[in-house]
From TrEMBL:
Chain segments carrying region Disordered: 1-71
PANTHER family: JUN TRANSCRIPTION FACTOR-RELATED (PTHR11462), TRANSCRIPTION FACTOR JUN (PTHR11462:SF8)
UniProt keyword terms in alphabetical order: DNA-binding, Transcription, Transcription regulation
Highest taxon, organism lineage: Eukaryota
Keyword Zinc-finger: no
Signal peptide (from-to): none
Segments of skewed composition (Polar residues): 59-71
GO cellular component labels: transcription regulator complex
Name of the featured protein: Transcription factor Jun
Length: 85
């Protein structure tokens, strides 16, 4: 606990603040403020995930197509190098 020095002639000092009780009060207040919002978050996240999955699948298929095209072009470049030399 804190100790406050006494000085004659001044107003009596305030009692020290108990930080543990302040933190507990703050946590309780916070818990009571938004209980309904905490329940809504998973629903929003689940709904937002569906379109992202579709986009992800489309991008993956496009990526595999581009990778196969790149491999084919590399092979053609190698063949052309062979012909030139």
């Amino acid at each position: 606990p804190q100790t406050v020095p006494e000085m004659p002639g001044e107003t009596p000092p305030l009692s020290p603040i108990d930080m543990e009780s302040q933190e507990r009060i703050k946590a309780e207040r916070k818990a009571h403020e938004k209980p309904h919002r905490c329940l809504q978050v998973p629903e929003k996240e689940a709904g937002a995930d569906r379109p992202a999955r579709g986009k992800s699948e489309n991008l993956e298929s496009a990526n595999s197509e581009l990778a196969s095209t790149a491999n084919m072009l590399r092979e053609q470049v190698a063949q052309l190098k062979q012909k030139v030399m």
